[in-house]
Amino acid sequence: MDLTLKVWRQDGPTEKGRLDTHQLSGVTGDMSFLEMMDVLNDNIIREGGDPVVFDHDCREGICGMCSMFINGQAHGPGRGVTTCQLHMRSFKDGDTITIEPWRATAFPVVKDLTVDRGAFDRVIQAGGYVSVNTSGETLDANTIPIAKADADEAFNAATCIGCGACVATCKNASAMLFVSAKVSQFALLPQGQPERKRRVTRMVDQMDKEGFGNCTNTGACSVECPKGIDLTNIARMNRDYLNASIKGE
Ligand code: SF4
Ligand code: FES
Hints:
The chain is α+β, with helices and mostly antiparallel strands. The chain contains 8 helices and 7 strands, in the order E-E-H-E-E-E-E-E-H-H-H-H-H-H-H. It has a 5-stranded mixed sheet.
């Protein structure tokens, strides 16, 4: 298929960006979106130009690096997929595709389609450690009973890959879906209880410091999340934060 691509180009965080137009031929439906971008870059390099900078790593929906806003949607059309899992069969011959970086104050553009998501790392760091009893009388983890429903919910929360699509989708650039998933994966398990209040307080405070917006219950974050992280995690985080604030943590 033949495509017209409008690609965001920006030399640095404080530089002015622009949309460049490229014509691309010979794209097949079996190519992933990133493979299509590779072909575009091959063409640009052959013509002596500067290739488009974009993040990627695993190319199988695990690492969360491939952050592209495609035709106004984080990770493009389709549900439950990252950009690397999006196939070109989702588009048709003659389509125009607009490709932009995540847009949020807390995610400054590094170059072109690559943004700095270090804010997510700092939120996780603020959460701190999970304490482990190494006194010599340590209980085997498998002897602590955990309700199946709690284990399943903790596991679901832990599938968050930190891609940032929730932030890019939210009209307030809120990171609450991401942070609540990271809070919940510990809050639902016995091992997460000793630091539970301190963890949620520190992570939410860091989230606010990074400049993310607040949640206004639109729910777009969860719809666009490639891992289907549920809004109930945000409710759990809010309850935990309130509880910790009242008890002075
Ligand atoms: S909650 Fe979903 S959209 Fe947000 S960072 Fe995690 S996986 Fe990505
Ligand atoms: S490149 Fe790893 S999730 Fe897309």
